[in-house]
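Instructor's aside before we start: the two examples that follow are unrelated to each other. I chose them only because their records fit on one page, so don't look for a connection. First example below.
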Amino acid sequence: MSVGIDLVEIERLERALARRPRLAERLFTESERAYAERQGRPGQHLAARFCAKEAVAKALGLPGFNFSEIEVLRSDGGAPAVRLHGAAAARAEELGVEVRVSLTHTGNEAAAVAIVQAV
């Protein structure tokens, strides 16, 4: 079992996305961006997903990763779920693990915890 955690200031990510509009395409999948756009404050939800990606990478021990390889989705029950692609999926398969995440945010900060456990 392994754990990863990450925290980010929401406004910092919002400013970065405003300065570099294509950054969102590099960091988030189309479905992640679409989900965030349906929310009252999209940056808050993107920040939580950014944290989840970082937390998953830490928990899997990925030294460098492509943000699109870790996708945060809503499951049928409303809880966040993770879909892995590419090197992240290969690493999870190599370790024989599944990944679970928990997201949270306030008006100022977003955070995520990832737990990786054997299946």
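Example two begins here.
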Amino acid sequence: MFGIASFRLAGYVIWPFGRTVVWKREAGVWSLIGNIVWILVLGWELAVAHVVAGLLLCVTIVGIPLGLAAFKMVPLALLPLGREVVPLDAVPHDPYGVPATR
């Protein structure tokens, strides 16, 4: 369970552009329990690392796109189970209500 989430996170880290993260409707109670364990063990550290990396990358103009990509990874690093990485074309809008753009 955690290994699959780790590979999902790694694939999203390698190429986050043109993709977004959505919640799986069929995720059950085990995803909730796994997310709680994940947050306590490693998730908060990964989320803080992505925030710090995003801030450092946004210092330069060249690094701003990569900094924004690092900020996109914070929710997935914090709660990876019960999530799915999909292309922007697959969802009519972002999970936060923002219309999908390329």
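Strands lie at 19-23, 83-87.
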